[in-house]
Amino acid sequence: GEALEVTREVNCVMDFIHGCEDQLQKLKKQKEKGLLYGIPISIKDHINCKGHISSGGMVKFLGQMKEEDSVIVQVLKSQGAIPFVKTNIPQTMINYDCSNPIFGQTLNPLNHQKSPGGSSGGEGALIAGGGSILGIGSDVAGSIRLPSSFCGLCGLKPTGNRIRPPACSDRTFVLAVTGMMGPMARDVDSLALCMKALLCEEMFRLDPTVPPIPFDEEVRLRGNP
């Protein structure tokens, strides 16, 4: 409900993920509850969800329903999270604003005259507007950090290859900087919990290219006496 209200105001959600209720019932029956049990999570447009499109803000991808969840969505679900919406991005995602010809312009919930930043702008706008408490964005050159800054949030671009983004097979260029997926939220503790949940045995099993190193709480706390 909150997400619907926020997106009516700032146009940040491009799709609602079906089957959330079924997912919750399934989780209730599991013995192991997972670190993110029952938490609704928003995800950026290009992260694949079974039965939904990953548009990239481009018309050519509109008819292409994804046949399976991406690794990060599978891991989130295994940790008890419920991915519930997909959020808007700029066309091709190589932009610091957040608009495309399909879903239009996303506004900054703190000031509708301003941009929420990009490319994880839909995430920034939804979380800042109170429609989500935790989201997954991605960052090559600021795509998590900029919307987090523009919207007054916390965001993390993890170290290279820590949480690999979905492979974009149609891309004809190779980026010198490693793109990463990472969490966005209102506080640092939420980011840490999300990273701890993602860097688990399930992630290392599903994606053998991710170094099997769990999240280190001591490293995080070292800078905070």
Automatic annotation (TrEMBL):
Lineage of the species this protein comes from:
Eukaryota, Metazoa, Chordata, Craniata, Vertebrata
Q: Which UniProt keywords apply?
A: Hydrolase
Cross-referenced InterPro entries, in alphabetical order?
Amidase_CS (IPR020556), Amidase_dom (IPR023631), AS_sf (IPR036928), Endocannabinoid_amidase (IPR052096)
GTP-binding found in the keyword field: no
Its recorded name reads VDHAP protein
The protein's matches in Pfam families, at most eight in alphabetical order, are given as:
Amidase
Q: Does the keyword Hydrolase apply?
A: yes
Question: What family is this protein classified in?
Answer: Belongs to the amidase family.
Amidase domain residues are: 6-212
GO biological process: any one? fatty acid catabolic process
Q: Which organism is it from?
A: Podilymbus podiceps (Pied-billed grebe)
Gene behind the chain: Vdhap
List the Gene Ontology MF annotations in alphabetical order: amidase activity; fatty acid amide hydrolase activity
